[in-house]
Specification:
The protein contains 10 helices and 9 strands. The chain is of the alpha+beta class and 281 residues long. Strands 1, 2, 3, 4, 5, 6, 7, 8 and 9 form a 9-stranded mixed beta sheet that branches. The radius of gyration is 24 Å and the shape is globular. The chain starts with 7 loop residues before the first helix and ends with a helix.
């Protein structure tokens, strides 16, 4: 009898951890993400075919277990790879010389949510990275909230763009007013604990649209649907409420409107649900 049979989670965890350890200790062995995703997809198809079309011969009963182990190992390697980015050729070093300023910290970042406009700035939530010269890669070290000075370049930024930033990060401030909107708690739930102001001369774009392709497609589709609402003469608070209820986009919800919903105990109305969409239509 197999002594590991009563512990399926441990049997899955061992090859997953083996993949993580392999990726951490031998980064030169790690193939690119596209190949790993292709291998994982091929293994998944093999497993599905074996499940759908019946059992294998008794002498081959070990094959499904081997496929699952290889699949978990690939997922472990992908997990490590998702926290690292390859350093671009020359561009990082060139921009570093241009942007380095006194008392400022220089770091690469990747935009993880669509930029939002404010009165004076473009607000970004980014993943911060630290260069690892030993492996020629960038190691992710948390998220940050950046306010870029509004100009033509900043307005062109999109989800997935990578930028090089020179700024001093400070903790997101707590709200001093009791029962008021607390930015520290709100952004803390998103894993964002630091923020910084970035002048137009203190950042440079180093790569276009390098984020998750599925998320990029979803955000692009949402933007097209928002434009349809605008084309149908929705504007102001009506557009803000409709876009929040239908698409979950709260970027147009102002402070006064948010306070009004909160005071009336109706903040839940701004959440997307099938009932809300049905009421609208």
């Amino acid at each position: 009898m197999n002594p590991w049979k009563p512990f399926p989670l441990i049997r899955l965890l061992i090859p997953f951890l083996a993949g993580v350890i392999c990726a951490l200790l031998r980064k030169e062995w790690q193939p690119d993400d596209i190949r790993l995703i292709g291998i994982s997809g091929f293994l998944t198809v093999l497993l599905l075919v074996q499940t759908v079309f019946g059992k294998l011969l008794f002498s081959l009963r070990w094959v499904p277990g081997l496929i699952i182990c290889l699949l978990m190992c690939c997922l472990g390697i992908l997990t490590v790879g998702s926290t690292q980015l390859a350093i671009g050729s020359g561009q990082l070093a060139i921009d570093s010389c241009k942007l380095q300023a006194a008392n400022c910290r220089l770091f690469p970042a990747e935009i993880v949510e669509p930029p939002r406009l404010t009165t004076r700035s473009v607000k970004l939530i980014v993943n911060r990275y630290e260069p690892d010269t030993a492996t020629n890669s960038l190691i992710r070290c948390g998220k940050a909230l950046l306010f870029l000075e509004k100009d033509t370049r900043a307005l062109e930024l999109q989800y997935g763009d990578r930028i090089l930033v020179s700024t001093t990060l400070k903790p997101v401030k707590d709200e001093s007013n009791p029962y008021g909107f607390d930015p520290a708690s709100f952004y803390g739930r998103k894993g964002v604990f630091y923020q910084g102001w970035v002048d137009s001369t203190e950042w440079s774009r180093i790569r276009l649209q390098a984020g998750n392709s599925l998320k990029r497609f979803a955000f692009g589709l949402r933007d097209r649907l928002l434009n349809i609402l605008r084309e149908n003469s929705l504007e102001g608070e009506e557009f803000a409420v409709a876009s929040a209820i239908l698409l979950g986009y709260t970027g147009e919800i102002g402070k006064e409107l948010r306070k009004g919903f909160a005071a009336s105990g109706a903040m839940h109305i701004l959440a997307v649900s099938g009932m809300h969409v049905g009421i609208i239509f």
